[in-house]
Each structure stands twice: as structure tokens, then as C-alpha cells.
Amino acid sequence: MMAKANLYVNLAKGMKMPLLGLGTWKSEPSKLSAAVKAAIDTGYRHIDCAYCYENEETVGDGIQAKTTDGTVKREDLFITSKLFESFHRLGDVESGLKKSLQSLKLDYLDLYLVHWPFGIQNIEGEMCPTGPDGRTLFNDVHFTETWHGMEQLVQKGLVKSIGVSNFNISQIKEIQALPNKVPISNNQIELSPYLVQDDLVSFCKSQGITVTAYSPLGSPDRKDPQDDDPILMDDPKLIDLARKKGKSVAQILIQYHLQQNVACMPKSVTPSRILENFQSLHFTLTDSEVEELKSLNRNNRYCTYDEAFGHPLHPFDPTH
Does the predicted model carry a pTM greater than 0.85? Predict the structure, then answer.
């Protein structure tokens, strides 16, 4: 049987990142501050955020409440956020970070990620500017320029570590080929038994790059699901395994990632589910059970950013 999952994974420069965190993508802002407080009270020490989630203000309210009441100190927490695509130019990177820091009411981040490899035009007052045809206005900034800006944030003490999100192997290699001053600490990607991505995960681990899974439960609340989209949490084999282990389907999926030393960011604003998800740390799966879950792979990607299909830096554009 596999050993119990580690609570932390080592990053570059000796930092430790909690493997289990609270995801905040698509979380209702009106409920999120209470959810963050409940998560910290439960034992979570990793909160995963992003500028484009448009809810960092309420995440910051929750963090501030728990540091003010003495439940935790700031240094006890590991806060991740992500650089939005409109701040990819070298001169815009720091301003993008500072918007998140201001909303989160923090002086620094533990981990800051380039959210996507491509950028969009930075037009004041517009999150995602579009042209007359309704299509997103992308720019021609290459992520290697963005990475230099990210390194400067570490040098200024504004972030402790940096990484990427939704980058493929060749894109990671392009960054590694630079005269880097700061290593890539993490790649946050969509992962689940329906999207195993073993080649990408193995490559990252071989390079000392930790991996974080987003949408680890198969994004059950995604917008406009297609009729033929497989629903991960309804998979009969997954349901049977959960029944056999006496656990919820969500707990099985979370532990599946943790046991592979992949950080996992399940989203919830419901205190009972936040607690249930945290209790995934209290059991293990066998090697054969992990492999059984991997065998469900369909290469089914829920988060495609298809409006960027055709952009030369799209990491998984099927038309490339």
C-alpha cells in the first residue's frame, strides 16, 4: 500500500507548499469570506486565488479576519495567485501583482503563477476586451518577456516563488532555456482521472517543478456542459470505489492526487464540504486503486480556453 500522502511538497529554495488547499475559482464572493475562515479553522493553510476570479477582495477579508483574531499568523499561510493575461508585458507584471496584493490585503505572495502562456490587450476598465467581431483581443507578448517580469517580483520581495499554469512541456523548456535567475516552482494544470496527463506531470517532477491540480473533481459546476460531456463524479467505477472505501467520491478524487504528490485545490463555500474535503488526508488508496482510477483516462479537458484557439501560444490547441 502507498504511504500516507505528505501534507507538504518541497518547492525550490527550500519552501514547503501544503498539498491540499482551498480553491476559489467560481466561488460566490458573498459566501467566500466565510468559506476562507471556515477553511482556516478546519486546518487549511493553502488558499488558491487569481485576479481573474474577481473575488480576491473577499478572500482577503477572510484571511485578515483569521490573522487578526490570532487563529494564524500570515507566515502560517501559503497564498497563491495568478497573473492575468492583460499584464503580460514586462512593464505591466508588477502592477498586475499589486492589484491582487491590494485586494488580498497582503504584502507578499508565497506563489505567483503566469495564468496562461498568451496575453490579451491591456485596455483600462475592460477585463477581457473584444473587437467588433466579439472576439477577445489578444496581444503578441511572448511569455518569456513575462517571465523576466516575474523574476523581478521575487528579487523585490513581493513574491517568494513563481511558476506557471496551463503550460505544456515545450513552453516550460523555453523558460528553462532562458538565463533564469529564479526557477519554475510549480505548474498548475487541469488534472483528474479523466485527464491524467502523465507525460506532463512526469516531466515537471523530473525537473523539480511541483504540480497542482485544478478542477480535480471534474468541474461539475462548469458553464454550458455539452450533452456528451462525461461527468466524472457520476462514473460507476469511481462510485463503486468510494462505496468500498466508505468515502465520498470527492474524497477519493482528492486523495488520488495527494498520493501522487500533486497538490489539489478543490473548491467549496460549504463548511461541511470544506471539512469533508480536508478529511481526505485521513485515508490512503492502494497502488492498484490509483492505477484503476488512471485507467479511466479519456483525455477529456473541461477547461479549453477555446476562444484562444488559433493563437500560436495556446498550450493545447487541437488545430496546432
Answer: yes
